[in-house]
Amino acid sequence: MPTTFSLPLRRLWTLDKFAYSLRVFLAFSGALLLSWGLGEVALVIPLFLGIIASALSETDDSWQGRLQALLVTLACFAVASFSVQWLYPWPWLFAAGLGLATFVLIMLGAIGQRYATIASGTLILSIYSMINIEHHGGVPDDGPWHQPLLLLAGAAWYGLISVIWCALFSRQPVKQSMARVYKTLGEYLVLKSALLEPLRDVDLEARRLALARQNGKVVEALNQAKEMIFRRLEGQRGDRKLNRYLRIYFIAQDIHERASSTHYPYAALTEAFFHHDVLFRCQRLLDQQGLACRRLAKALLLNRGFDHRQSEQALEDLRASIDNLRDQRRPEWRELLFPLEALADNLATLESQLASAHNPDADEPRRDDALFDRSPSSLRDAWERIRLNLTLASPTFRHALRLPLALLAGYGLLQWLDPQQGFWILLTTLFVCRPNFATTRRFLTQRITGTVLGLVVGWASITLFPQPLVQSLIAVIAGVAFFANREKHYVIATASITLLVLCSFNQVGDGFDLIWPRLFDTLLGALIAGLAVFFILPDWQGRRLNREAAKVLTNCRGYLDEIIHQYEAGKQDDLAYRLARRNAHNADAALSTVLTNMLHEPGHYRKAEADDGLRFLVLSHTLLSHLSALGAHRHRLADDEDDATLVPLAREIGVLLGEIAEALAARRPLRALEAEVNVLLERLEAPLAEAAEAQAPYRPIQSQLRLIAQQLVPIGEAANRLVMAGAGAAPEASAAAA
């Protein structure tokens, strides 16, 4: 029997939502057993609501960090629930407290993701407290403390399960996050291989755009993995398994740098070697390495062997193909064979990194394994982060003003109409109203669809299964389904939480009476959220597109400066280099996110900026690819006097990138760069021609700097198009961009 079921159970254990769902199941089941054991079914509702709020506030930490976060969360929950209970009878004081508390909690999110999660959970629990009071027809006779304590008990119960679980299985989330990194890397490599397909009349720009968007997913996965490892390494630097995952993470960063590198314009290689198999060999090798990354992700999860023989064989075939081309000694290929060999060397190194990722203990020790801590180091640092966001240019500040007004509008409507179960209006507004229009529109439609689906299923459930025990079990299953699907399948999650509400409330009343109010309140809350994000300080992405584009070039310049410093001082993957590389990729991913959101905005506000932004993204990602190739071939320039003469040229490229970034940030036209760039290219190409005539060794730094310099004029033109497209923006946009 163990043999039959061991593999399916192991696969189930590897799912990132399985542990989360199991914790929720234990919490719901415990609350249900307690209420049934005491014979007070009414306890289910406040306990369930507290569990949900606590689970939504859960942060990823070591068990010590999670315990500290739980204590802070419970303190916030206590203040919120008692405040709601005490202010409920006085609408004007209640409205003032609701608006002020919402603004403060949203602004606390500017400190960091951990604080944003706790603040969001506190807001949710506040509205759950309102719903619970309304369900009892006002403040109950058993005192103003009884219901808040039940909510806190539910939150504390889930928090206790979470802390114990984290102490027992602290490394499982790290393993899952690293598997997610290698899975997204594999998808990136497969997309990158499509660029090497030697076909004419192919829409390369569309493929590069898809690659840039996938790069954003890789960056997000790397950032999440880094934060998970960092939180668990605090005070546990000697933990052998954690240090092993740290090495796997560093290897993933190196693979990402090599995977994102570009050594030569692929169109020129396609034209030259169209009738030969070398590019097919390159494509197959990259594709096989992408599949190997996916297999490595599964191997990490299941603790089993990793087979990458197919990619090893593909590498050998590529080497043989290049040797065959070299043996033909055709002079027109001489210059192109150098970047082909550099590409093969890069892929060979990537292959060895894949092998070392499965056995990182054999990897040579690093001189610097520090990670950059992005959390605030003091109260002063936390306040400084909040202070920097107290401006209309900050999306956080705009949302902190918009959401309280939306909730107050909902509360005013509730007081005016006096609908049954009216506080569901506020809950819907809270869940649907997001910092930007695109995300709000997506959640709005999904929330309404999921609510309708949940009400239909809930009506059928309480009709077909009138037994209280069966309805309680359905509520527990629905609660688990909500948490299992809330990030990727929001329609199913909303339907599940609606089903939980109907089955739970039917235990202490008539669930049928909740169906129409729930639907009506959801529609009103969604309408308020949609109107708020459209009319109250709307954060149209086009208004900050120029700033996000400028950040990309600024961080690319910082990456270039750090690469050149590495050439001068010698190759070492220290914190400064890794931070510069990560900042460049983070900026690239942020620009991709802004453009994705723009495409879902109304056409009147999107105008032509989205198309110009997509062109800029393709060019900036190509620039980042050339920088990655330059970083992949780092070596000490003291060993090569000819390469050392290129450092001033690299500095000039950095200055021009900075100039373009400054013009973009200020939204002013950029001067013509063609003449200056042409002079720079002549200084870079002359030694290449001399080296080709003398058959001197290939110099990757010179070739990559030339490719980077060739991107300056197109990027400058794309920057000017963004500036001109945004010239007709509203005065408010200009003020926000200042």
Automatic annotation (TrEMBL):
Residues 412-529 form the Integral membrane bound transporter domain. It comes from Franzmannia qiaohouensis. It holds the Pfam family FUSC-like. Keywords: Cell membrane, Membrane, Transmembrane, Transmembrane helix. This is YccS family putative transporter. InterPro entries: Integral_membrane_YccS, Integral_membrane_YCCS_YHJK, Memb_transporter_dom, YccS_N. Belongs to the YccS/YhfK family. Its main location: membrane. It comes from the Bacteria.
